[in-house]
Amino acid sequence: MAKLFTDKQTDMISDNKLIADFMDVGHLYESQSSNRFNNYHNSWDDLMPVVNKCYQEHMSRHILTALTTCNLETVYKVVVEFINEYNN
User: Which burial class, exposed, middle or buried, applies to 31 when counting CB atoms under 10 A from its CB (0-12, 13-18, 19+)?
Assistant: First the structure.
């Protein structure tokens, strides 16, 4: 039987769910691509409120450093790492 998602897609889906939970919108999260809460990996507009929360509320310097790269994928990965550490 063929896999529905690649491992990378599965990771992205679970990372977006992690971010949605961190932003207290996890109950609104769905894995369909039309849902705005699963587009954190693809949109500065969706990711920046998360970046703001990480930095303003938790003073994550790693987030600030990642922002200087102006690379969405880099910032997304650092946000996911931060939230994983924050949740532990």
Answer: middle
Tokens of 54: 């990480």
Burial of 66 (0-12, 13-18, 19+ CB in 10 A): buried
State how many domains the chain has.
1
The parent domain of residue 64 ranges over 39-88
Q: Can you give the pTM of this predicted structure?
A: 0.80
Residue ranges of the chain with per-residue pLDDT less than 70: 1-8, 10, 29-37
Residue whose structure tokens are 């990378």:
8
